[in-house]
Amino acid sequence: MKMRDFKYIDIHSHPHFSDFDKDREQLFDRMRELGVGTIAIGTGKATSAKVLELARKHEFIWASIGQHPTEQEEFDESFYREILENDKERQIVAIGECGLDYFRMDARDESERKRQKRLFESQIALAVEFGLPLILHIRSSANRSDAHDDAYEILKEWKGRHSELHLHMHFFTGGVELAEKFLELDASFGIPGVVTFKSAHDLHGAVTIIPRDKILLESDAPYAAPVPHRGKRNEPTFVSFTLEKIAELRGDDKEALRKQILKNSQKYFQIF
């Protein structure tokens, strides 16, 4: 597929997950037919190898490699460095998903926070060294902003030293205040299918104030399918429903917004 053939880029999906084992090729056929590309996201060594393999086989898939904050395996920097150095075709377009996730941990477990921060900064350093954007997974404890606060301070320090580092907020569901905070770091925002939910009031407000050139579409497939597929397995082709809702909330022309978001995908992740 050439650039002119793409209508949508799903910036974050997991097509390598077992959820797609029975009909993965049919999914890929739908993506080709509808002009949908995706960045397949690694969450550890095994999945990073899988997404890179998919990217090498399919011209509409790119790879992001890294380790999820809740993944307990020891971070193997040499593994990631080797595949980055050998990526002559530039199929790896980002580092991540990486960041901080305090949602499922004991809030009193300071050692786990420190472990996640070390893991996070190791991947930030790789992104800086190889000139790649970071795909950020940040999830705070229930009814708190702790992980976002800690991540902001870490990223602010790194951006102060490396202004060229691009930060992408994966699965952003926060409100106006949180969006404005990370806009200070010049971040872009992946808007998921959650935006189509009637209950997503905070996100609805944020979508109206995030600049058009900072908005990207993501499915996080197989999770969080948008209305009208809510509750079913998600897939990259469903980002069209997410776009429709974003355009409605902003009062934007849908086609103009689609083209702008496609440009954003190309700009931030150097794809096509």
**What is the CATH topology classification name?**
TIM Barrel
Mean of the pLDDT scores?
Answer: 96
Strand order of the biggest β-sheet: 1-2-3-4-5-6-7-8
Cα-atom radius of gyration:
17 Å
The fraction of residues in strands falls at 15-25%
Name the descriptors.
272 residues, alpha/beta, TIM Barrel, eight-stranded parallel sheet
In words, what does this structure look like?
By secondary structure, the chain is an alpha/beta fold. It has one domain (3-269): TIM Barrel. The chain has helices at 24-34, 45-57, 77-85, 110-130, 146-161, 176-183, 201-209, 239-250, 254-269; strands spanning 8-13, 36-41, 61-65, 92-101, 134-139, 167-169, 188-191, 215-217. An 8-stranded parallel sheet has the order 1-2-3-4-5-6-7-8. α1 (24-34) links the parallel β1 (8-13) and β2. The longest helix is centred in the middle third of the chain and has 21 residues, at 110-130.
Secondary structure layout:
Elements: E1 8-13, H1 24-34, E2 36-41, H2 45-57, E3 61-65, H3 77-85, E4 92-101, H4 110-130, E5 134-139, H5 146-161, E6 167-169, H6 176-183, E7 188-191, H7 201-209, E8 215-217, H8 239-250, H9 254-269
Parallel strand pairs: 1-2, 2-3, 3-4, 4-5, 5-6, 6-7, 7-8
Helix pairs in contact: 6-7
